């Protein structure tokens, strides 16, 4: 029997996984099983990216599909998941009128429980920790790969692997990368919802 | 816990089958073809994770059935019984082992060995019987049989366990298991979990070995969980081998919750007891106070402070 290290952060995984996440890329740039052709150009991210810089769109691809899912449904799924992830990344990091201290709506599309978890991790899951010290965020790179669990030819679970690179301006000039996994299930009355996450954040060089 | 709560929880209990504990997440290893779109170095890293499952602490009764091919697994005898709690907020998990020969009261059937309640009333009755002993009603009951257990260990590429004492069995494992950190293949993992005759403390030691097996499986699942399609493939594998009233989405959630268990926060104990003879049969007379104390200790946070 073992005991936890005192003060270990909630839900944080071991060092080996940490290193794995830090050192290994998340996405496949090449075709993956289940990929259904060129990715959507994606709707422009609603970047608050100040300074009139061209907004960066999310490149979304379908990754590993476990089970059977028709191409048309893959396309719809990709669009829906991309919208959800874009809404979250914009609300939590990119959009907003910086300097800002208000991040109450930073987790659209999360279940209540996941939203509660994310609020506890708000310095990781949003720009809450630096929001008052910056005056703008510029997205540099946004990618999304969607792994799917399909049962009876319908998508029932999704693991969304995302990467967001952004720069900040103002008092705190940072180049950051946020990457990780968002776990989603289809809710009959609410569409896709994020019920869990495994996210890391670090300085980009 | 109120009766209505119990009823609601029992209604969520699986009507049958499938893997023991973490076993639910079987492993299909998918090569990672990931390529970095941008060269980066992360010099400062924060990480967090969470899974929203309600309630925060979920309880799963993992049952290894002794059903032979062709027999109804959900009305057989439970050979291995582990009540497993997972705290999705902290990543803690605990396993409370119950000797299969424990002589207990089975609702509606008088007193008998605890594993007979699966035969009498299926997973629901077994869940209720174990719940009455420990004082925690499980949210789910998973039942698996030997063959599927071995198949899952095969998918995982075997597991590694820490074996505290060398032992063997003339019929199940003549060459035996050496002491120390050992790798177990599909058959070895099954034998390691089943052998009891040559163990000093018989059923109690066997239950502890089952917990070592669960640890090994969880560690393996966790190590592979980030591979694309791993959890998804595990859910489909489970669905192929079980009858359940859980939706695939619920299984998907449980799979992720299991993968997020932190090995350093796993605790486990086995309910002890005396050896008795009832009707000419050797049985375990469990220390009910001890069983309840484990339940009381772990109920809220899935952690037992000491056995």
Overall geometry of chain A: globular
N- to C-terminal distance of chain B: 24 Å
| Backbone shape of chain B | globular
Architecture (CATH level 2) name of the domain at 3-29 and 51-146 and 228-298 in chain B: 2-Layer Sandwich
Termini separation of chain A comes to 41 Å
Number of distinct helices of chain A? 4
Radius of gyration of chain B using CA atoms only: 19 Å
Q: Which two chains touch over the largest interface?
A: A-B, 71 and 54 residues
CATH domain topology of the domain at 3-29 and 51-146 and 228-298 in chain B: Nucleotidyltransferase, domain 5
Mean pLDDT reading of chain A: 79
The CATH topology of chain A comes to Nuclear Transport Factor 2, Chain: A
Note the total helix count of chain B: 8
Give the strand order, joined by hyphens, for the main sheet of chain B. 7-2-3-4-12
Strand order of the largest sheet of chain A: 1-2-3-4-5
Poorly predicted spans of chain A: 1-52
Write a structural description.
The complex is a heterodimer of chains A (about 200) and B (about 300). Chain A starts with 14 loop residues before the first helix and ends with a strand. Chain A has about 200 residues and is of the alpha+beta class. The longest helix of chain A has 24 residues. Chain A has one domain: Nuclear Transport Factor 2, Chain: A, CATH 3.10.450. Chain A has a five-stranded mixed sheet, sandwiched between helices. Chain A contains four helices and five strands; from the N terminus they run αβαααββββ. Chain B is α+β, with helices and mostly antiparallel strands and about 300 residues long. Chain B has a domain of about 190 residues: 2-Layer Sandwich (Nucleotidyltransferase, domain 5). Chain B contains eight helices and 14 strands. In chain B, the strands form five sheets. Chain B has a five-stranded mixed sheet, with helices on both faces. A two-stranded antiparallel ribbon of chain B has the order 5-6. Chain B has a two-stranded antiparallel ribbon with strand order 8-11. In chain B, β5 and β6 form a beta hairpin. The N terminus of chain B is likely disordered. Chains A and B meet through α1, β1, α3, α4 and β2 of A and β1, α6, α7 and β12 of B. β5 of chain A pairs antiparallel with β1 of chain B, so a sheet runs across the interface.
